[in-house]
Design brief:
The protein is α/β, with parallel strands linked by helices. The protein has two helices and seven strands, in the order E-H-E-H-E-E-E-E-E. The chain has helices at about 20-30, 45-55; strands at about 5-10, 35-40, 60-65, 80, 85, 95, 105. The strands form three sheets. The chain has a three-stranded parallel sheet with strand order 2-1-3, with helices on both faces. It has a two-stranded antiparallel ribbon with strand order 4-7. The chain has a two-stranded antiparallel ribbon with strand order 5-6. A hairpin with a 5-residue loop joins strand 5 (about 85) and strand 6 (about 95). The protein is globular and about 40 Å long. It starts with a strand and ends with a strand.
Length: about 110
């Protein structure tokens, strides 16, 4: 059984992504394991998707995605995943689906 744990590069005004900091801290506590695969992905969707698909093709048993949410000071679990992406430079929404012909949200 193998688990893929992902984190992300920095973006916007942050010098480091808190997901990557959390993953590094986790690894420093538990050490390396042949059953745990860790990855640091870019925040650019196309590149991240390519790398994720390649990692999933290895046949992992499960995946845990870590992320950073601005203006949040505690760990939170997401109950829903919205199948949409897109913000313009002035932060107005221009949403398009992440996965074509898929549900608008996943619980």
């Amino acid at each position: 059984m193998s688990i893929l744990i992902t984190a992300f590069d920095n973006y916007d005004n942050w010098q480091e992504n808190s997901s990557w900091i959390a993953l590094r801290e986790y690894l420093s506590e538990v050490g390396a394991s042949k059953d745990i695969i860790t990855r640091r992905y870019p925040v650019q969707l196309a590149t991240m998707r390519e790398r994720l698909e390649a990692d999933l093709a290895r046949g992992v048993s499960g995946v845990i995605h870590l992320g950073q949410r601005p203006r949040t000071s505690c760990v939170q679990l997401e109950a829903f995943c919205i199948n949409a992406i897109g913000l313009t430079a002035d932060r107005t929404a221009e949403l398009e689906p992440l996965v074509e012909h898929a549900p608008a949200a996943y619980r």
